[in-house]
Protein backbone atom coordinates (compact mmCIF):
# COMPACT_ATOMS: atom_id res chain seq x y z
CA UNK A 1 0.00 0.00 0.00
CA UNK A 2 2.83 2.40 0.89
CA UNK A 3 4.61 1.63 -2.38
CA UNK A 4 1.48 2.35 -4.42
CA UNK A 5 0.98 5.66 -2.60
CA UNK A 6 4.62 6.64 -3.19
CA UNK A 7 4.28 5.93 -6.92
CA UNK A 8 1.11 8.03 -7.08
CA UNK A 9 2.84 10.96 -5.38
CA UNK A 10 5.83 10.70 -7.73
CA UNK A 11 3.77 10.62 -10.92
CA UNK A 12 1.14 13.13 -9.85
CA UNK A 13 3.51 16.04 -10.48
CA UNK A 14 4.33 14.92 -14.04
CA UNK A 15 2.12 16.57 -16.69
CA UNK A 16 0.18 14.27 -18.98
CA UNK A 17 1.73 13.49 -22.35
CA UNK A 18 1.07 16.29 -24.82
CA UNK A 19 -0.04 18.76 -22.16
CA UNK A 20 3.22 20.70 -22.04
CA UNK A 21 2.83 24.29 -23.13
CA UNK A 22 4.53 25.26 -26.38
CA UNK A 23 6.49 28.44 -25.71
CA UNK A 24 8.35 30.59 -28.27
CA UNK A 25 11.72 32.14 -27.54
CA UNK A 26 10.27 35.66 -27.33
CA UNK A 27 7.19 37.66 -28.31
CA UNK A 28 8.08 41.21 -29.31
CA UNK A 29 5.28 43.81 -29.17
CA UNK A 30 4.92 46.03 -32.23
CA UNK A 31 3.59 49.58 -32.26
CA UNK A 32 1.84 51.11 -35.29
CA UNK A 33 3.41 54.13 -36.94
CA UNK A 34 1.39 56.72 -38.91
CA UNK A 35 3.99 56.70 -41.69
CA UNK A 36 2.06 54.02 -43.61
CA UNK A 37 -0.82 51.53 -43.49
CA UNK A 38 -0.07 48.89 -40.82
CA UNK A 39 3.56 50.05 -40.65
CA UNK A 40 5.01 48.72 -37.40
CA UNK A 41 7.79 49.78 -35.06
CA UNK A 42 9.70 48.09 -32.28
CA UNK A 43 11.52 49.49 -29.26
CA UNK A 44 15.06 48.31 -28.70
CA UNK A 45 18.05 49.25 -26.59
CA UNK A 46 21.55 49.62 -27.97
CA UNK A 47 24.36 50.08 -25.47
CA UNK A 48 21.83 51.21 -22.88
CA UNK A 49 20.06 53.74 -25.10
CA UNK A 50 16.46 53.06 -26.14
CA UNK A 51 15.30 53.80 -29.65
CA UNK A 52 12.20 53.42 -31.82
CA UNK A 53 12.82 51.44 -35.01
CA UNK A 54 10.68 50.55 -37.98
CA UNK A 55 10.43 46.81 -38.63
CA UNK A 56 10.93 46.34 -42.35
CA UNK A 57 11.09 42.89 -43.97
CA UNK A 58 12.00 44.54 -47.27
CA UNK A 59 14.71 46.81 -45.87
CA UNK A 60 17.49 44.32 -46.47
CA UNK A 61 19.90 45.79 -43.96
CA UNK A 62 19.25 47.31 -40.54
CA UNK A 63 20.35 50.88 -39.94
CA UNK A 64 20.38 53.63 -37.33
CA UNK A 65 19.98 57.36 -37.76
CA UNK A 66 23.08 59.58 -37.66
CA UNK A 67 21.88 61.05 -34.36
CA UNK A 68 21.35 57.64 -32.77
CA UNK A 69 24.74 56.44 -34.03
CA UNK A 70 26.31 59.43 -32.29
CA UNK A 71 24.30 58.73 -29.12
CA UNK A 72 25.51 55.12 -28.84
CA UNK A 73 29.09 56.07 -29.67
CA UNK A 74 29.28 54.01 -32.83
CA UNK A 75 32.22 54.58 -35.16
CA UNK A 76 30.82 55.63 -38.53
CA UNK A 77 33.00 54.71 -41.48
CA UNK A 78 33.07 53.30 -45.00
CA UNK A 79 30.11 53.01 -47.35
CA UNK A 80 27.28 50.62 -48.15
CA UNK A 81 25.77 50.86 -51.63
CA UNK A 82 22.56 49.52 -53.05
CA UNK A 83 19.45 50.45 -54.96
CA UNK A 84 16.00 51.50 -53.79
CA UNK A 85 12.89 49.78 -55.08
CA UNK A 86 12.59 51.99 -58.15
CA UNK A 87 16.22 51.74 -59.19
CA UNK A 88 17.90 54.82 -57.75
CA UNK A 89 21.28 54.20 -56.16
CA UNK A 90 21.50 54.69 -52.41
CA UNK A 91 24.78 55.09 -50.48
CA UNK A 92 25.14 55.24 -46.72
CA UNK A 93 28.02 54.95 -44.24
CA UNK A 94 28.25 51.91 -42.00
CA UNK A 95 28.42 51.21 -38.28
CA UNK A 96 29.65 47.78 -37.13
CA UNK A 97 28.81 45.29 -34.38
CA UNK A 98 25.50 46.75 -33.22
CA UNK A 99 23.41 44.59 -30.87
CA UNK A 100 19.74 45.45 -30.50
CA UNK A 101 18.44 44.30 -27.11
CA UNK A 102 14.75 43.35 -27.37
CA UNK A 103 12.83 41.24 -24.84
CA UNK A 104 16.07 39.80 -23.49
CA UNK A 105 17.28 38.82 -26.96
CA UNK A 106 20.50 40.25 -28.36
CA UNK A 107 19.89 40.72 -32.08
CA UNK A 108 23.19 41.40 -33.75
CA UNK A 109 23.88 43.41 -36.89
CA UNK A 110 27.54 42.76 -37.77
CA UNK A 111 27.24 45.57 -40.33
CA UNK A 112 24.51 48.21 -40.04
CA UNK A 113 23.88 51.29 -42.10
CA UNK A 114 23.65 54.88 -40.92
CA UNK A 115 20.73 56.64 -42.55
CA UNK A 116 17.94 59.07 -41.65
CA UNK A 117 14.63 57.46 -42.67
CA UNK A 118 12.70 60.57 -41.60
CA UNK A 119 13.48 62.29 -44.90
CA UNK A 120 11.03 59.84 -46.49
CA UNK A 121 8.34 60.21 -43.83
CA UNK A 122 5.34 62.56 -43.78
CA UNK A 123 5.73 65.66 -41.59
CA UNK A 124 4.69 65.63 -37.94
CA UNK A 125 5.02 61.87 -37.34
CA UNK A 126 6.94 60.28 -34.43
CA UNK A 127 10.66 60.24 -35.04
CA UNK A 128 12.29 56.93 -35.91
CA UNK A 129 15.82 56.08 -34.81
CA UNK A 130 16.34 53.65 -37.66
CA UNK A 131 15.02 50.40 -39.03
CA UNK A 132 15.38 46.70 -38.24
CA UNK A 133 15.44 44.26 -41.12
CA UNK A 134 15.53 40.50 -41.40
CA UNK A 135 19.34 40.54 -41.22
CA UNK A 136 19.28 40.67 -37.42
CA UNK A 137 17.13 37.51 -37.41
CA UNK A 138 19.38 35.51 -39.76
CA UNK A 139 19.37 31.83 -38.86
CA UNK A 140 16.25 32.15 -36.71
CA UNK A 141 12.56 31.45 -37.25
CA UNK A 142 10.12 34.31 -36.74
CA UNK A 143 6.41 35.04 -37.19
CA UNK A 144 5.11 38.48 -38.09
CA UNK A 145 1.49 39.14 -37.15
CA UNK A 146 0.36 42.64 -38.07
CA UNK A 147 -3.14 41.81 -36.81
CA UNK A 148 -1.82 40.90 -33.35
CA UNK A 149 0.94 43.51 -33.53
CA UNK A 150 3.58 40.97 -32.55
CA UNK A 151 6.85 39.65 -33.87
CA UNK A 152 7.55 36.19 -32.45
CA UNK A 153 10.95 34.53 -32.31
CA UNK A 154 10.01 30.87 -32.58
CA UNK A 155 11.39 27.93 -30.66
CA UNK A 156 11.73 24.57 -32.38
CA UNK A 157 8.43 23.44 -30.86
CA UNK A 158 6.50 26.64 -31.61
CA UNK A 159 7.82 26.63 -35.20
CA UNK A 160 6.54 23.08 -35.67
CA UNK A 161 3.14 24.25 -34.47
CA UNK A 162 3.15 27.15 -36.96
CA UNK A 163 4.09 24.77 -39.76
CA UNK A 164 1.09 22.57 -38.99
CA UNK A 165 -1.33 25.51 -38.96
CA UNK A 166 0.05 27.40 -41.96
CA UNK A 167 0.18 26.91 -45.70
CA UNK A 168 3.68 26.75 -47.16
CA UNK A 169 4.64 29.27 -49.80
CA UNK A 170 7.73 29.29 -52.01
CA UNK A 171 10.39 31.86 -51.12
CA UNK A 172 13.97 32.78 -51.88
CA UNK A 173 16.38 34.44 -49.48
CA UNK A 174 17.99 37.55 -50.97
CA UNK A 175 21.41 38.53 -49.59
CA UNK A 176 22.65 41.76 -51.15
CA UNK A 177 25.29 44.31 -50.06
CA UNK A 178 28.04 41.69 -50.20
CA UNK A 179 25.86 39.28 -48.20
CA UNK A 180 25.14 41.64 -45.30
CA UNK A 181 21.50 42.30 -46.18
CA UNK A 182 18.62 39.82 -45.92
CA UNK A 183 15.18 40.02 -47.50
CA UNK A 184 12.76 37.51 -49.01
CA UNK A 185 10.92 37.21 -52.30
CA UNK A 186 7.88 35.00 -52.80
CA UNK A 187 6.94 33.00 -55.88
CA UNK A 188 3.99 34.34 -57.88
CA UNK A 189 2.12 32.35 -60.51
CA UNK A 190 1.96 33.88 -64.02
CA UNK A 191 1.02 32.34 -67.40
CA UNK A 192 4.69 32.53 -68.45
CA UNK A 193 6.26 31.08 -65.30
CA UNK A 194 7.09 32.02 -61.72
CA UNK A 195 7.68 35.68 -60.92
CA UNK A 196 9.39 36.70 -57.66
CA UNK A 197 8.02 39.55 -55.55
CA UNK A 198 9.41 41.01 -52.36
CA UNK A 199 7.42 40.72 -49.13
CA UNK A 200 7.71 44.19 -47.61
CA UNK A 201 6.29 45.18 -44.23
CA UNK A 202 7.71 48.64 -44.86
CA UNK A 203 5.34 49.24 -47.80
CA UNK A 204 2.15 50.70 -46.37
CA UNK A 205 0.67 51.61 -49.74
CA UNK A 206 -0.58 49.68 -52.74
CA UNK A 207 1.37 46.66 -53.97
CA UNK A 208 3.89 47.63 -56.64
CA UNK A 209 4.18 45.65 -59.88
CA UNK A 210 6.92 45.92 -62.51
CA UNK A 211 5.79 47.00 -65.97
CA UNK A 212 7.06 43.76 -67.53
CA UNK A 213 4.88 41.71 -65.15
CA UNK A 214 1.73 43.85 -65.21
CA UNK A 215 0.13 42.33 -68.36
CA UNK A 216 0.60 38.84 -66.90
CA UNK A 217 -1.69 39.66 -63.97
CA UNK A 218 -4.19 41.70 -65.96
CA UNK A 219 -2.92 45.15 -64.93
CA UNK A 220 -2.75 48.10 -67.33
CA UNK A 221 0.64 49.60 -68.12
CA UNK A 222 -0.53 53.01 -69.34
CA UNK A 223 -1.44 54.44 -65.93
CA UNK A 224 0.44 55.17 -62.71
CA UNK A 225 -2.77 55.34 -60.69
CA UNK A 226 -3.75 52.48 -58.34
CA UNK A 227 -5.79 49.81 -60.09
CA UNK A 228 -7.39 46.57 -58.86
CA UNK A 229 -5.57 43.31 -59.58
CA UNK A 230 -5.53 39.72 -58.43
CA UNK A 231 -2.82 37.07 -58.63
CA UNK A 232 -1.84 33.91 -56.78
CA UNK A 233 1.26 33.04 -54.82
CA UNK A 234 2.91 29.71 -55.52
CA UNK A 235 1.04 27.71 -52.91
CA UNK A 236 -2.38 28.95 -54.01
CA UNK A 237 -2.90 31.97 -51.77
CA UNK A 238 -4.51 34.90 -53.62
CA UNK A 239 -3.26 38.47 -53.45
CA UNK A 240 -5.97 41.03 -54.13
CA UNK A 241 -6.33 44.80 -53.92
CA UNK A 242 -4.85 47.83 -55.62
CA UNK A 243 -1.51 47.77 -57.39
CA UNK A 244 0.67 50.47 -58.89
CA UNK A 245 2.62 49.69 -62.04
CA UNK A 246 6.18 51.06 -62.08
CA UNK A 247 8.43 50.98 -65.13
CA UNK A 248 11.74 51.31 -63.24
CA UNK A 249 11.12 48.66 -60.57
CA UNK A 250 14.25 46.54 -60.02
CA UNK A 251 12.24 43.41 -59.16
CA UNK A 252 9.07 41.72 -60.38
CA UNK A 253 6.95 43.25 -57.64
CA UNK A 254 6.59 44.32 -54.03
CA UNK A 255 3.80 43.04 -51.75
CA UNK A 256 3.12 45.22 -48.71
CA UNK A 257 1.10 45.48 -45.55
CA UNK A 258 -2.32 45.64 -47.19
CA UNK A 259 -1.82 41.96 -47.92
CA UNK A 260 0.15 41.05 -44.81
CA UNK A 261 -2.45 42.45 -42.41
CA UNK A 262 -4.68 39.46 -43.25
CA UNK A 263 -2.01 36.83 -42.65
CA UNK A 264 0.50 35.66 -40.06
CA UNK A 265 3.81 35.19 -41.87
CA UNK A 266 6.23 32.59 -40.50
CA UNK A 267 9.80 32.59 -41.84
CA UNK A 268 12.44 29.95 -41.23
CA UNK A 269 15.45 32.06 -42.14
CA UNK A 270 17.84 29.16 -41.63
CA UNK A 271 16.21 26.79 -44.11
CA UNK A 272 14.61 29.34 -46.43
CA UNK A 273 11.01 28.25 -45.91
CA UNK A 274 7.82 30.21 -45.17
CA UNK A 275 4.19 29.69 -44.21
CA UNK A 276 1.07 31.85 -44.17
CA UNK A 277 -1.85 31.35 -41.78
CA UNK A 278 -5.01 33.48 -41.63
CA UNK A 279 -4.60 36.22 -39.02
CA UNK A 280 -6.81 36.13 -35.97
CA UNK A 281 -10.28 37.41 -36.78
CA UNK A 282 -9.58 37.37 -40.54
CA UNK A 283 -11.41 35.06 -42.90
CA UNK A 284 -9.13 33.00 -45.10
CA UNK A 285 -9.71 33.54 -48.83
CA UNK A 286 -10.32 30.56 -51.09
CA UNK A 287 -6.99 29.12 -52.22
CA UNK A 288 -6.18 27.38 -55.46
CA UNK A 289 -5.71 23.64 -55.70
CA UNK A 290 -2.11 22.95 -54.64
CA UNK A 291 -1.69 20.02 -57.05
CA UNK A 292 -1.79 22.50 -59.94
CA UNK A 293 1.16 24.46 -58.57
CA UNK A 294 4.84 23.67 -58.63
CA UNK A 295 7.14 24.66 -55.77
CA UNK A 296 10.64 25.94 -56.44
CA UNK A 297 13.42 25.19 -53.99
CA UNK A 298 14.58 28.18 -51.96
CA UNK A 299 18.14 29.43 -52.12
CA UNK A 300 20.28 32.39 -51.16
CA UNK A 301 22.17 34.54 -53.64
CA UNK A 302 24.48 37.52 -53.64
CA UNK A 303 24.06 40.58 -55.77
CA UNK A 304 26.97 41.45 -58.06
Structure, explained:
The protein contains four helices and 22 strands. It has two domains: 26-152, Acid Proteases (Cathepsin D, subunit A, domain 1), CATH 2.40.70.10; 161-302, Cathepsin D, subunit A, domain 1, CATH 2.40.70. Residues 1-17 and 284-304 have low confidence and may be disordered. Helix content is 10%, strand content 41%. The chain is mostly beta strands and 304 residues long. A hairpin with a 2-residue loop joins strand 7 and strand 8 (105-114). The chain has an eight-stranded mixed sheet. An eight-stranded mixed sheet has the order 17-18-16-19-15-14-13-22. The protein has helices at 2-12, 66-71, 156-165, 257-260; strands spanning 26-29, 31-32, 40-46, 49-55, 63-64, 76-83, 89-102, 105-114, 130-132, 141-145, 150-153, 167-169, 171-175, 183-190, 193-199, 207-210, 227-232, 238-246, 253-255, 263-268, 273-278, 300-302.
Q: How many independent structural domains?
A: 2
Structural class, by secondary structure, is: mainly beta
Mean pLDDT rating: 87
| Strand order of the biggest β-sheet | 2-3-4-9-5-8-7-6
CATH class of the largest domain: Mainly Beta
CATH fold field value of the largest domain: Cathepsin D, subunit A, domain 1
Low-confidence stretches: 1-17, 284-304
The main sheet comes to: 8 strands, mixed
Listing every helix as H and every strand as E from the N terminus to the C terminus, the arrangement reads HEEEEEHEEEEEEHEEEEEEEEHEEE
CA-based shape: globular
What is the level-2 CATH architecture name of the largest domain? Beta Barrel
**Could you tell me the strand content as a percent range?**
35-45%
Taking all Cα atoms into account, the compactness measure Rg is 21 Å
Residue share in helices?
10-25%
Number of strand segments: 22
Calculate the terminal CA-CA distance, rounded to whole Å.
Answer: 76 Å
Give the number of helices.
4
Amino acid sequence: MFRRLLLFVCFAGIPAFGSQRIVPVAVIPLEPHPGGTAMMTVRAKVRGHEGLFMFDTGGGISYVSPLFAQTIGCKVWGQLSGFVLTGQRLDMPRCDEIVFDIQGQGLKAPIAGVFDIMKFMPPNVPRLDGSLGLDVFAGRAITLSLADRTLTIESRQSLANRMKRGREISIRLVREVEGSALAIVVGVVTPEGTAWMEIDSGNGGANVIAKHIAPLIGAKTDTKQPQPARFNLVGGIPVTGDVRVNETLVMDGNIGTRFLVNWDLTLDLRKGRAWLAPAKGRRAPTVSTPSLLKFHSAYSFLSP
